[in-house]
Write a sequence for this structure.
């Protein structure tokens, strides 16, 4: 099967060919014709299988011959949970539409809002956005939705986990009732299916891999080790095996910063990326990692689905995630597009419960490799595979919204526009909440009005 057989036009086929792609992946082969036919789609596939092209290519095909977007209007809206994923999707849309008379842009928090408002003034055919910044722009009349023809929810399960459900529902209420709806995700939990009931109409449902399966191209194993020896063991692995590039996941932002310092002290170039970092710092760290200027990128789960690096050889779980599904998303950063990858986890005795959950979810007992000089004093219990059906984790409720543990729960104290700081007051004209500094002193005659609602996005 070729891309030409899926109904894509010559300008898009030329752009695909320039990237060296010849054969569509299974998710692309099933999704592209359905989207071009104008059907609503629910598609689930593990990371690294080409979901972004699965929706962006047919969306561009459908928009190619339509009317141009009016000033401040958009024709297609792609919602993503994180800034990194928004930037990645935006790059793909720009790349695939280079031969078409279509405009696209990306908006997310953590950067100034005014340049984004300027771009929207002339009208945009495809807008890639995080929910919070999109609502900021709408409240300032910088974006209007009456011309929207297509809505895409990318990584819908992640958006619900991160607590974006209220913003998503607000956005849905602002959109035209007659539109095409596409939901693309790594998994379809019960919560996602509940959301889909009020969103998609008689959808084509596509699932090309077992729910929460790990890619067969990824070799997985664990190194049992005491918690206080993890940093030393990681340094040994990097230096002894001469790793040129590895993505390392920690459970917390402070842990990411601490590990980055410890690696740097041993002469290993490293950078941290997490919700407390400014968008500029996050973008710089990711680019340095892609360019080879930084050897190790230390990340929290906020980046698990927003990093797309060709031929990434290693992913390391310095800390196991609390939520077993996050293990699948983390290791999905390696072994992409058929390439071989390695997923290594450093596991201490305190993490046995998390390990058991991961093994139950993935239906396999992970191989254990003891390293000389790092045999744990506190022995990691032996695994026994729990074969009962795994029930997807339900996010904790925080102030009425969904938020999982770890980074998702901590995100409520971070920057508002993508990882959720609660604003203390409404922004001034031309200023987004994520750009506010300290609250201005208020006059006793004019007490501050409480916000009717707060959100993260």
């Amino acid at each position: 099967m070729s891309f030409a057989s899926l109904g894509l036009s010559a300008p898009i086929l030329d752009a695909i060919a320039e990237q060296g792609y010849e054969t569509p992946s299974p998710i692309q082969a099933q999704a592209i014709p359905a989207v071009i036919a104008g059907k609503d789609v629910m598609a689930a596939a593990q990371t690294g299988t080409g979901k972004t092209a699965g929706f962006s290519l047919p969306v561009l095909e459908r928009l190619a011959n339509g009317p141009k977007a009016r000033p401040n209007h958009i024709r297609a809206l792609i919602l993503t949970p994180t800034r990194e994923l928004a930037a990645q999707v935006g790059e793909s849309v720009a790349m695939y539409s280079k031969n078409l008379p279509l405009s696209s842009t990306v908006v997310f928090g953590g950067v100034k809002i005014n340049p984004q408002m300027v771009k929207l003034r002339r009208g945009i055919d495809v807008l890639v956005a995080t929910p919070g910044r999109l609502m900021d722009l709408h409240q300032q009349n910088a974006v209007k939705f009456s011309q929207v023809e297509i809505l895409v929810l990318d990584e819908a399960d992640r958006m619900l986990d991160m607590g974006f459900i209220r913003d998503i529902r607000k956005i849905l209420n602002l959109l035209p009732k007659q539109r095409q709806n596409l939901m693309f995700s790594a998994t379809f939990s019960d919560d996602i299916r509940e959301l889909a009931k009020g969103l998609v109409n008689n959808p084509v449902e596509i699932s090309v891999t077992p729910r929460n399966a790990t890619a067969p191209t990824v070799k997985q194993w664990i190194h049992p080790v005491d918690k206080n020896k993890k940093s030393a063991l990681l340094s040994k692995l990097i230096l002894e095996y001469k790793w040129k590039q590895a993505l390392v996941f920690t459970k917390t932002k402070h842990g990411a910063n601490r590990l980055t310092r410890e690696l740097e002290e041993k002469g290993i170039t490293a950078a941290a990326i997490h919700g407390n970092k400014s968008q500029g710092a996050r973008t710089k760290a990711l680019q340095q990692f892609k360019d080879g200027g930084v050897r190790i990128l230390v990340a929290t789960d906020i980046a698990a689905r927003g990093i797309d690096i060709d031929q990434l050889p290693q992913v390391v779980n310095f800390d196991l995630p609390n939520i077993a599904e996050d293990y699948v998303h983390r290791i999905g950063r390696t072994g992409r597009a058929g390439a071989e990858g390695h997923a290594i986890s450093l596991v201490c005795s305190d993490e046995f419960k998390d390990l058991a959950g991961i093994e139950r979810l993935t239906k396999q007992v992970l191989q254990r490799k003891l390293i000389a000089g790092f045999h744990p004093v506190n022995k990691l219990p032996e695994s026994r595979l729990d074969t009962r059906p795994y029930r997807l984790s339900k996010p904790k409720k925080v102030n009425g919204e969904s938020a999982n543990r770890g980074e998702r729960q901590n995100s409520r104290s971070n920057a508002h526009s993508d990882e959720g700081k609660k604003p203390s007051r409404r922004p001034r004209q031309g200023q987004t909440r994520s750009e506010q500094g300290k609250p201005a002193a208020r006059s006793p005659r004019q007490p501050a009005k409480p916000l009717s609602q707060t959100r993260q996005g």
User: Anything to note?
Assistant: Residues 127 and 298 are 30 Å apart (CA to CA). Confidence is low (pLDDT under 50) at residues 395-457. The longest strand covers residues 218-224.
